[in-house]
Amino acid sequence: ISLYRRPFVESYEETPMLVAVLTYVGYGILTIFGYLRDFLRHWKIERCHIAREREEQKDFVPLYQDFENFYTRNLYMRIRDNWNRPVCSVPGPRMDLKQRVSHDYNWTFEYTDQVIRDVINLGSYNYLGFAENTGPCTDAVAKVTLQYGVGVASTRQEMGNLDKHEVLEELTASFLGVEAAMAFGMGFATNSMNIPALVGKGCLILSDELNHVSLVLGARLSGATIRVFKHNNMQNLEKLLREAIVHGQPRTHRPWKKILIVVEGIYSMEGSIVRLPEVIALKKRYRAYVYLDEAHSIGALGSRGRGVVDYFGLDPCDVDVMMGTFTKSFGAAGGYIAGKRLIEYLRTHSHSVVYATSMSPPVVEQIIASMKCIMGEDGTTVGQERIRQLAENTVYFRKRLREMGFTVYGNQDSPVIPMMLYMPSKIGAFGREMLKRNIGVVVVGFPATPIIESRVRFCISAAHTKHLLDKALSVISEVGDLLQLKYSRHRLQPSPMRPLDDSVYEDVVD
C-alpha cells in the first residue's frame, strides 16, 4: 500500500562537470590571491582593516586560529554588500532599502540620504503575506498594545503569564489538532533549549544531515548520542534504527532509553520536503519518537495551512513532538512545541520557560489574529485564499524558472526555491545585478552550502501578484543570460499538443 496520497516530486539535477571544475578553479584562484594579500598585509604593504590582537598580546594563547578568519577576510568581505541591507519599510511583496556605499572595499559602509524604493522582495519568509501594517491583524495588535503595553518584564512562571498567552497556546493546539501546546519567545531557542529537556545521556538522536543549526545545537547540548542519516534517505535511517536496536548503547550494549528521529518539514536551503509518511512508518516499526521542526512548513503547506502533516493527510498524533515558529507564515516572532503528554513536563524542565522573558503582548496578538484568519475563525475566507494563492505562486514560479533553463532544487510544492549559481564570483554579481533592477534576493554560499553549490534562495509569498512574479522572472532571465546561469540540461516547455495550456509540461534534453 502506498504511503503517499499524492505524487511526491523532488528534483536535484547533477552539477555539470565543466561547471564543477570551473567552480573549484574559481575558489582556487581566490585562495591563492587571498594568501598573497595576507602576505602583503603581514609586511605592511597592504593596509589591513580587520580587528587584530595587539603586539603585546602575542605571547598569550591566540583568540582564534588565523586560518579560521581566512574566508571572512578574503572571500566574504568581497561580497559582503549583498547581506545586512537595511530595510526601511514593511517587508511585504515590495519594500524600501536604505542605500549605502563603501569606500574601502566593503570593510565599512556609509549610509546615503537616498532610499531605493519599491524593491520587489523575493527573500523574506513572508509566506502568507501577514507581514503588513494595515488590515484586521494590525488593528487587533494596535488595540492590544494600548491595553497591555509592549513588554512583560517577567517570566511565565513568575509575573509574566498573561491571559493572552493562555489563549495563544489553546488556539495553537486546536490549529494543530493536538492535546496541548506551549509558546516560546524565540524560534531558535525553541529547538536548542527544549531538545535537552526531552533527551539526555543514554538516549539516541537520529538527525537528518541537513537539519538546521538550532536542532544540531539542541542535540549537542542534550548529551545524547547523535548519529546522522543522509538527507531524506529512508534506507539509511532504517539501517541506523536497526543497528541501534540490535547493538544498543556503546560498550554496555544496554537498550537506548529513547530513540528520537529529528527532521524538518521544509529544508530551507534545499527546498525539499521531509518524507514524513515513511518516517512515521519507521518510527512505529522500531518504537522510536519523532521530533518534527515545521519552521518553514507551518502555514505554508497543506490545504488548510497546517503544515507538512496536513500536506500528507496524516494524523497529528503520530508525531510525538511538533515544533514550529511564528516568525514566518504568521508574521510575528517566537516558536511553539505541541504534542501529547509532554507539555506539562516541559513547563517545569525547559530553560526557555524557566528563564526567558514572556512573549510580548502585541506579538502574541499578531499570532492569534493571523492564526484565526488561517483557520477561518475571523468569519472570512481570506486565510484560505492566501493558502491557495501561495500554492499557485509556488508552482508557477518553479515551472517558469525551469522553463528558462535554470537549475532549481527541491520539491515542486515548496515555497523555498533554491536556484543554483555555483561559482563564487557569481554570488555577489547576481545579488548586485538584481538590486540594480529593483529586485531584492538572498544569495547563499559556503559555508552555509557545500562549496560548489552556491545558490540564490527565492521565498515566494501569497502577497506576490502574478504581475510581480512575471516582472521578477523577466529580470531573472535577463541577469541569467548576462551571467550565464542557465546551466540546466533539462528544460521544461509547453506540450506541443496543447500549446495554450501552461499546466502541461514535459522534460526535454537541451
TrEMBL record:
Molecular function as annotated in GO: pyridoxal phosphate binding; serine C-palmitoyltransferase activity
Domain Aminotransferase class I/classII large intervals: 118-476
Cofactor(s) this protein cannot do without: pyridoxal 5'-phosphate
Transmembrane stretches, start-end: 17-36
Gene Ontology terms: cellular component: endoplasmic reticulum membrane; serine palmitoyltransferase complex
Annotated GO biological process: ceramide biosynthetic process; sphingosine biosynthetic process
InterPro entries registered for this protein in UniProt: Aminotrans_II_pyridoxalP_BS (IPR001917), Aminotransferase_I/II_large (IPR004839), AON_synthase_class-II (IPR050087), PyrdxlP-dep_Trfase (IPR015424), PyrdxlP-dep_Trfase_major (IPR015421), PyrdxlP-dep_Trfase_small (IPR015422)
SUPFAM superfamilies given in the database record: PLP-dependent transferases (SSF53383)
Keyword Membrane found: yes
Top-level enzyme category: transferase
Species of provenance: Takifugu rubripes
Entries under Gene3D superfamilies matching the protein: Aspartate Aminotransferase, domain 1, Type I PLP-dependent aspartate aminotransferase-like (Major domain)
Main location: endoplasmic reticulum
PANTHER family assigned: CLASS II AMINOTRANSFERASE/8-AMINO-7-OXONONANOATE SYNTHASE (PTHR13693), SERINE PALMITOYLTRANSFERASE 2 (PTHR13693:SF79)
Matching Pfam families: Aminotran_1_2
Protein name: serine C-palmitoyltransferase
Subcellular location, record wording: Endoplasmic reticulum membrane
Membrane topology note: Single-pass membrane protein
Family: Belongs to the class-II pyridoxal-phosphate-dependent aminotransferase family.
Entry keyword set: Acyltransferase, Endoplasmic reticulum, Lipid metabolism, Membrane, Pyridoxal phosphate, Sphingolipid metabolism, Transferase, Transmembrane, Transmembrane helix
Pathway: Sphingolipid metabolism; Lipid metabolism; sphingolipid metabolism
Gene: LOC101069659
EC assignment: 2.3.1.50
